[in-house]
Specification:
The complex is a heterotrimer of chains A (440), B (177) and C (328). In chain A, α1 packs antiparallel against α15 and α10 (161-170) runs parallel beside α18. Chain A is globular, with a radius of gyration of 22 Å. Chain A starts with a helix and ends with a helix. The longest helix of chain A has 35 residues, at 269-303. Chain A is an all-alpha fold. Helix content of chain A is 79%, strand content 0%. Chain B is built from four helices and no strands. Chain B has helices spanning 10-47, 54-76, 91-125, 138-163. The radius of gyration of chain B is 19 Å and the shape is elongated. In chain C, the strands form two sheets. Chain C has a six-stranded mixed beta sheet, with helices on both faces. A five-stranded mixed beta sheet of chain C has the order 2-1-3-10-4. In chain C, α1 links the parallel β1 and β2 (44-49). In chain C, α3 packs across α10 (250-273) and α4 packs across α11. In chain C, 54% of the residues are buried. Classes of the chains: A mainly alpha (440), B mainly alpha (177), C alpha/beta (328). At the A-B interface, α2, α4, α5, α8 and α14 of A face α1, α2, α3 and α4 of B. The complex binds sodium ion (NA) (2 copies). One sodium ion is lined by residues 112, 115-116, 154-155, 157-160 of chain A. Residues 112, 115-116, 154-155, 157-160 of chain A line the site of one sodium ion.
């Protein structure tokens, strides 16, 4: 084995070591990247490159949409959208057996259409839906499990921060990725609702039907959700139909949600301050990881690691589907340990070159799209699987009377539904590729 | 802003306030960029005349804004770590590891101040400007260097905090997943 | 480059911003490297790192070469506006007209005396241009400058933005990868960009009209450089330096003009095969554009005079040098 590759592997081991001892993932990447570049290429290259590298990365136009969508999500969180969404969903679905939980899923999907984050979706919807689920005496594990799983829709339905980052890493088109995520996102919503329907039939009294609402309430609730739908239609519809590119879309979305919040007086200056500080935390965290990932990938490129990994995979004699499944399983396992964003940033520079060499009878752009959606789904599964399931943690912080283990149990049916969905998308790539092909 | 601040000396509490205000200033800059972009789009759709070179202002402005966020991230512990492996470790061990993380952040920010100072000097010396509006690129480096100095300060504060056994105040961020 | 079993005496990294399958790599960078490696009898080995794989963004390439982060780069001068004001003269409309070979050789003629000082910290191997900016429109036929009034056009460079303004259109800046989407959704109405880019961005599907002046006349061009870190260059023995020089001289620049011309011709063929309208303006129509674009040259002269550059004289010299090599 050549020395550079060996150094690269030692670097990876060091990275895992640092992550294990609780060094923030961004700094673990930064340290390994810097030390690695230094060892492989010397101090002159390292010192020179760091004069402009951070500014270059932070000023990438493709990425500037990220803080905008984060801001939009944070304002939406404070603007009372979640309440409107749940009320409307409940008016339509609440009367059915398991209907209140189904409403929570539908409302999560609605919130996910203006918010690019899973955790924000889970926590925001949790605050609204959990009290209602409790009121109708839903089984606690079903209640918390539903909202934890529903939060995942925040990322699966565009806009999606992780999807943007993926697109930037593999140089895919963000609009294509958003378009491709739409149908799989709807399928997820349908599967989750069916999951609840099956669950409440198998487990007696797990999800009693809610009350039927009056005609007036039905109309009022339905009308109340229209502004959210309008914002989604304008922002995401605007991207799909080409009124604007993602960055202006993010700006318009953040602007409209703020206007909506101010107009309804649900958002004041105080809320804006909190929304801005939350945006600062999230965006700062994301960009620091991006910088770490860039340093790490320079180190690995100098060591020739990604090329070698791709070559080894290509020469392994495994079928493309086997390799694809192995990679997805690796992502699920990693997802148990790391947050999805760090993971995408950490592994895609290695995984994508491997996937790019596989022949599935589609163009490279289509392969990028398909693999991206599959990876996104399995990466997000990590949010609801033990031992580290961030969505579960967040929901449990809201529902302190439900033991963590109950929430994890409650998530299991949804996890199974997700696995079915992954298999479906693996077997029928056209579900992912249909809309991008149609809209060009 | 945070209950733990009272447990620490007054200058530290003041520094924390400055760091928070600096992040807010960056947030307001971000809002400004959002408004500029929305305005440019509006002008484009209605009058067919977008704001000239809006994209390079977005690039530059977002870069500056994100740098202002970094000290606040450090201060509030927003930088995600994998806590799984140390979930059973003693509080002492965890505090030490947090301390270690802060040392790394301090070293990195100091290192980056040094390097990016020369990045600014180069940019100025070679007269780098933006394409459409001709804005000197080194302008952006000035607030960025201030942000990095505050990042160093924030790292020092987290070091002191963890040395004294005072935990992070912010908790994990909710937006990123 | 690839698979050199034994390590050569002089190893170089070559960093650039396009993909490994781009014509720039396969038809220019690889042949150039191959000749140098062969001429050196294996003493020189140059490893290509495409697509910014050694990190950073395309505008950082020139810094990377200057600072020795990498040894060799290929980059668009316009990625760092402000750094190469003198070389910009060759980007101006109706200075470069239709002959990349002549412009390449003209830049070489003027290099030592008029351009070299702005390439601080690097040793320029060669400068070159592509075939030049043509007009590619989504659905608008263009035969006179007025047809572009109020249209949103993607800018190629700083001077390209001036061309667009002079024609009464709106310059829109965006990274190249965003262009296909922007065209397909009419976020922009068109772009000033050569034919060569057509296959890479599938412009044949996104545009209907390809417009250029009479006799392949273009509306300005883009200048590129292949440069080596200065210290690295100075540390090379003379015979190795000579090998680089021999393979980057007049003969190579003339050939390079042909190479870019061929890539460009290949691009327009794909568009016309796909049923697009390839409009070649008549002499009179081209003249109308020339009149409209003359002020761009003056704008550049005014702009650089603030930097102590004698713009008028540079314009004269550039025109004369291109004239000298035209049609050889
Ligand atoms: Na979303
Ligand atoms: Na997990």
């Amino acid at each position: 084995m050549d020395t550079n590759l060996l150094i690269g592997l030692v670097g990876l081991a060091g990275l895992i070591g640092l992550i294990v001892i609780r060094i923030p993932i961004a700094y673990a990447m930064i340290v390994v990247g810097i030390v690695g570049i230094w060892v492989l290429s010397g101090e002159r290259i390292l010192l020179s490159q760091l004069k402009s590298l951070a500014y270059g990365q932070f000023s990438l136009y493709d990425l500037s949409v990220v803080p905008m969508f984060v801001l939009m999500g944070n304002i939406a969180t404070r603007a009372g959208l979640s309440r409107d969404l749940f009320r409307a969903a409940n008016a339509w679905l609440g009367w059915m057996k398991g209907g209140v939980a189904m409403s929570a899923i539908a409302a999560c999907a609605g919130f996910g259409s203006v918010c690019g984050s899973s955790l924000a979706t889970a926590s925001t919807m949790g605050q609204v839906a959990l009290p209602e689920l409790k009121r109708y005496r839903y089984k606690p594990s079903l209640a918390t499990g539903t909202v934890a799983a529903g939060g995942v829709l925040g990322i699966l339905i565009p806009p999606s921060v992780v999807l943007i980052i993926y697109a930037v890493i593999v140089e895919a088109n963000i609009v294509t990725m958003f378009t491709a995520a739409f149908l799989p996102g709807l399928i997820a919503v349908a599967f989750f609702i069916v999951t609840i329907a099956i669950y409440v039939r198998l487990v007696p009294n797990a999800g009693p039907p809610g009350a039927r609402v009056s005609r007036e309430e039905f109309v009022a609730a339905t009308l109340g959700v229209l502004p959210v739908l309008a914002i989604f239609a304008l922002v995401i519809g605007g991207i799909y139909l080409g009124f604007f590119n993602p960055t202006p879309a993010g700006a318009v979305g953040a602007f409209l949600v703020a206007v909506y919040g101010f107009a309804r007086r649900t958002v004041g200056l105080r809320d804006m301050r909190i929304a801005l500080l939350e945006t600062a935390k999230t965006s700062g965290m994301i960009y620091l990881i991006l910088l770490g990932a860039e340093l790490l990938s320079i180190f690995m490129a100098r060591g020739g690691v990604p090329q070698t990994a791709a070559m080894m995979m290509a020469e392994s004699g495994l079928s493309p589907y086997t390799i694809m499944v192995l990679l997805l399983i690796a992502l699920i396992i990693l997802g148990c340990l790391m947050d999805s964003l760090s993971m995408i940033l950490l592994v895609m520079p290695f995984f994508w070159p491997v996937v790019a060499e596989l022949d599935f009878g589609m163009t490279e752009d289509e392969l990028k799209t398909w693999f991206g959606i599959l990876a996104l789904i399995v990466v997000e599964l990590g949010l609801i699987t033990p031992p580290v399931g961030m969505n579960v943690f967040v929901i449990n912080a809201l529902a302190r009377d439900v033991p963590m283990i109950e929430t994890f149990k409650g998530v299991v049916p949804f996890f199974l539904a997700e696995i079915v969905r992954v298999v479906l998308l693996l077997a029928f790539p056209s579900i992912v590729l249909f809309l991008p092909r149609l809209l060009g | 802003m945070n209950p733990a601040a009272s447990a620490l000396p007054r200058p530290i509490a003041f520094a924390e306030k400055v760091i928070e205000l600096w992040a807010l200033a960056g947030g307001i800059l971000l809002c400004g960029i959002v408004l500029l972009t929305a305005y440019s789009l509006f002008m484009d759709i209605v009058f067919g005349a977008p704001f000239a070179g809006d994209f390079e202002i977005v690039e530059m402005g977002v870069a500056v804004a994100v740098f202002t966020f970094l000290p606040y991230c450090q201060l509030t512990g927003a930088n995600v770590s994998a806590d799984l492996f140390t979930s059973n470790a003693s509080p002492r061990t965890v505090t030490f590891l947090v301390f270690l993380g802060a040392v790394i952040a301090l070293l990195f920010s100091t290192f980056l101040i040094w390097r990016m100072y020369y990045g600014m000097v180069d940019s100025r010396q070679y007269n780098e400007i933006t394409t459409v509006n001709g804005i000197p690129v080194w302008f952006a480096y000035v607030p960025i260097l201030i942000s990095l100095a505050l990042l160093a300060l924030a790292s020092a504060i987290t070091m002191i905090r963890s040395a004294k056994g005072v935990p992070h105040t912010g908790g994990p961020s909710l937006g990123g997943e | 480059a690839q698979g050199t079993a034994q390590s050569a005496e002089f190893e170089f990294t070559f960093h650039h911003f396009l993909g490994p399958k781009s014509p720039a790599q396969t038809q220019m960078i690889e042949p150039w490297i191959q000749r140098i490696e062969e001429a050196s009898d294996g003493r020189v080995s140059i490893e290509i790192y495409p697509a910014m794989s050694l990190g950073g963004t395309p505008p950082e390439l020139i810094r990377q070469a200057r600072d020795g982060v990498v040894d060799l780069i290929w980059v668009v001068n316009g990625y760092t506006p402000g750094l190469f004001p003198r070389t910009e003269v060759f980007e101006l409309p109706f200075i470069h007209t239709n002959d990349p070979k002549a412009t390449n050789l003209a830049m070489r003629d003027m290099f030592e005396e008029s351009l070299a000082e702005e390439y601080e910290g690097v040793e320029v191997m060669f400068l070159h241009v592509h075939a030049g900016q043509a007009i590619q429109m989504v659905d608008q036929e263009v035969r006179k400058p007025e047809d572009l009034a109020g249209k949103k056009m993607r800018i190629p460079t700083r001077t390209g933005a001036w061309v667009i303004e002079a024609l009464g259109a709106n310059p829109v800046g965006m990274p190249v990868p965003e262009l296909p989407q922007a065209l397909s959704k009419k976020v922009v109405d068109g772009a000033f960009i050569p034919w060569e880019i057509i296959p890479a961005l599938k412009l044949q599907d996104l545009t209907d009209y390809q417009i250029e002046g009479a006799d392949k006349t273009r509306f300005g061009t883009t200048t590129f450089q292949v440069s080596m870190n200065k210290d690295r260059w100075d540390g090379l023995p003379e015979d190795i330096q000579q090998i680089f020089r021999d393979n980057s001289g007049e003969e190579w620049l003339a050939e390079l003009g042909e190479i870019w011309r061929d890539i460009d011709d290949g691009g327009i063929k794909i568009a016309t095969d796909a049923g697009n309208h390839h409009i070649v303006l008549t002499e009179e129509e081209t003249e109308a554009f020339r009149e409209k674009l003359e002020p761009v040259v003056q704008r550049w002269v005014d702009d650089v005079s603030g930097k102590g550059i004698e713009g008028e004289a540079m314009v004269e010299a550039a025109r004369a040098a291109i004239e000298k090599h035209a049609g050889q």
